[in-house]
Give the backbone structure.
Amino acid sequence: MATSAAQIRAFNGPALLSYGFRPFFLFGALWAALAVALWLPMLSRHLIVPSAFGPIEWHVHELIYGYVPAIVAGFLLTAVPNWTGRLPLVGTRLLALFLTWIAGRVAVFSSLWIGVAIAAAIDLSFLALLGSVIAREIVASKDARNLKVLAGVALLLVGNAAFHLETIAGIGNGLGTRLGIAATVLLIMLIGGRIVPSFTRNWLARRGAGRLPVPFNRFDVIVMVTSGVSLAIWVMVPHGEPTALIALAAFGLNGVRLWRWAGERTTAEPLVLILHLAYAFVPIGFLLLAMGIMAPEIVAPSGALHGWTAGAVGVMTLAVMTRASLGHTGQPLTATRPIQLIYVAALVAAVARIVAAFHLLREPMLYLSATAWVIAFTGFVIVYAPLLARRQA
């Protein structure tokens, strides 16, 4: 049977369709930049779009259920073949999956024209199709350990369905938003717990003696279970005191988990350091969640959402995309100056959005965050488009 590398070399179609990360990372980043760039004039009513979602709802949906699934698809379609030893999705089948994601973005954008039910069906079909593709590969490999990532995709699908139902029924209690954020945070914890210590250990092993990341053990299981319970309670009871207390526990445990990965030794290589900085927004999000419940006069309840979305999601996805794209296109695994600037912009976007949650210079911080976000993702498109759109030498 041909190896993944052999199949890719034998593929004669466009380079963009030779591996899952290529179209989804490139156009996912482009959409992340465009969605935020459009949102500000939408919010000020200078731009009216034919979506059934209001400006804030459209902004939330298109980042959680538009951008995030694209990056999840790019990552899983690249990682799962490595985990299972099976051939990757390429060519026409990859194009069909990618066009399904594009169709979802168009459908949500024009949902007032085509109808909310039709838009929901088109949008939901992408995550359903992605889940079936990943499930087929994992089941065929007979390695049940990898089914955990499929649960994350399923949660995103359920959350997206809830988001659309809230819009159709006019309920709007935020359940769909919380489900999507919770699923994404769990995926970051699951995948981050796999790649951050692994990449760190590989890099540190070449640096000589010193502290190394602690391998996955029972402590990590405790962290995942506690965090999962915390997120589940938050989804169902977003403002209760028990929610705040278990969020504080998840904050402490995730902080210790991050410390165990020896991130302080990675300052010489931003490509590794950024993974640790990105994961730091996971415990920060839990802390902001607790503070938003217990002291809303100090921290807006939305602080946790943006600690996780602008922080953990924005920075971690860029960290993974920049590294994976270099590695799978045969480039040196080091952060060049343009890549470092992408990281700086992403961190500025996250920090500014969190500062805004503390009721400090809210409007200037919102505009700074949005501008920095657009710069970060536009920077990714500019720097990586030549690598992702051309065939590897």
